[in-house]
Each structure stands twice: as structure tokens, then as C-alpha cells.
Amino acid sequence: MPAQLSVNLNAIAMLRNRRDLPWPSVTSLGRIALQNGAHGLTVHPRPDQRHIRFSDLPDIRALIDDEFPQAEFNIEGYPTEEFLDLVEAHAPEQVTLVPDDPAQATSDHGWDFEGKGNVLRSVVQRLKKSGARVSLFCDPDASRASLEAAKATGADRVEFYTGPYGATFDDPARAAEALRQLEISGKLAAELGLGVNAGHDLTVDNLPGLARALPQLLEVSIGHGLTADALEYGMAETVRRFVKACQG
């Protein structure tokens, strides 16, 4: 079964936030994405609300509940108490925990599972009690020991950081090496019973290679590249293109 596509709405929200105006609408474009084959919507509500605003969350939750009950809401972020309260208030189907400093421009590394295992374990258990599936952001070259530590937290999945792979867009040899490492890590995760997600700098061009290297891939979360393509092709056609690319 091809990986499912979750459309990250943060880049759309960032464009909206350049003006004190309600457009582009994250819910309207989220609706178009779900109408055209996306399985879910992802947001990363940072403390400074420079992308998604906290006030967007109930609207996105209502969109899914009222119009697309089979779709999933994925909220990602660093597990501060404020973030955990937001998650519990909006009941996402999946929570993706990332080790970002609040000042970071974007996620750029996975968790130190062996060093942060105890902290993550308590957070994961809290989130699972709320009914959410929990995914942990993970480096693409994660070792078996690191993935065993991730599994020990009680998490359901890991999301491999594909930024290094995305950066090889003009170097086929480096792209092949990045895929080889992801393939190794993906097999280790699957052996340990962890579901596999992926995200960061994925495009229509590089998704098929990733899908072939990670046949166990369950979900990709894509924002920047998808939003960039939507400026050229429109949101509906862009989502259809990305869904097709997920098929490998």
C-alpha cells in the first residue's frame, strides 16, 4: 500500500501571516488537499505562532470532523506543557514530537533517544492516554540502539528526517547514498515494530525513490515543496501529483 500523504499547512499559514488578513485560508486549502487525495493535515504550532496560530487548530479539527471523518489531524512540536495542552484540547489522531528549539527556523535533526528516553517516555505515555498515535522525529542514520531506545518510550512510529536526502537534488550519487542509509534505518525500525513516517524537503521528483527504498513507509508529511508547487500547478493538481509520487 502506498504511503499516505499528510499536507503540512505551515507554509500556507506563514504566507497568510504576512498581512493582517484571512487569506490564504489554511482551512480552505486544507479542504482542497483532502478533496484531492491527501489522507491528513499536519501543523506545527510554534510558541511564537509565526506559522500556524493556536486559533487555527479548532478550525482544522472541525474541518476534519465535519467533512472528512476518515482523515487524520497530525500536530507536531516540542513537548512543552503549552504544546501538550494544545494537543489534548484538539485531539489529533497523531502527535509527532520534534526536538526543536523554539527559535529554530525548521526541524533539522532527530531526537537523542538514548539521552532523552526517560523524558520522552513520560510524554509518550501521557499522549497515548489521550488516544493519539505518537511518532518521534528521528535521524536518517539512526542506529539499532537508538531505535531500541525510541521503541522503549512506547512510541508507535518514528518519522525519519529526510532533509539530507532532499539536499541531494543535484547530486545523484549522494542521493543514492542517502537512500541507502534510510533503507537501513527503515528496516531496523520495522524489525523493532516501529511504524515508519518521513518528512522534510520531499518533492514530486524525490518521493518515488524514497518510496522504493522504504517499502514499509506509512506516511509522508510535506509542506514546503508542496506549497511551492501549488503556486505553479494549483493546490488540487499538486496534491494529486504528490499522491501519485508516493506510489514509487
What can you see in these coordinates?
- The chain has one domain (4-245): Aldolase class I (TIM Barrel), CATH 3.20.20.
- The protein has an 8-stranded parallel barrel, surrounded by 7 helices.
- The radius of gyration is 17 Å and the shape is globular.
- It has helices at 10-16, 26-35, 56-67, 81-90, 113-129, 144-152, 163-166, 172-191, 207-213, 224-233, 235-245, and strands at 4-8, 40-43, 72-77, 94-97, 133-138, 157-161, 195-199, 217-222.
- By secondary structure, it is α/β, with parallel strands linked by helices.
Total discrete domains: 1
Beta strand %: 15-25%
Helicity level, as a percent range? 40-55%
Total of DSSP H or I helical runs spanning 4+ residues: 11
Give the terminus-to-terminus CA distance. 11 Å
In quaternary terms, these chains amount to single chain
Largest sheet: 8 strands, parallel, barrel
Mean of residue pLDDT?
95
Q: How many whole angstroms does the radius of gyration measure? A: 17 Å
Residue ranges: pLDDT <50 for 5 or more in a row? none
- What is the CATH T-level topology? TIM Barrel
Secondary structure: number of strands: 8
Tell me the structural class.
Answer: alpha/beta
Which descriptor suits the 3D outline? globular
The CATH architecture assignment turns out to be Alpha-Beta Barrel
The sequence of SSEs as H and E is EHHEHEHEHEHEHHEHEHH
CATH class: Alpha Beta
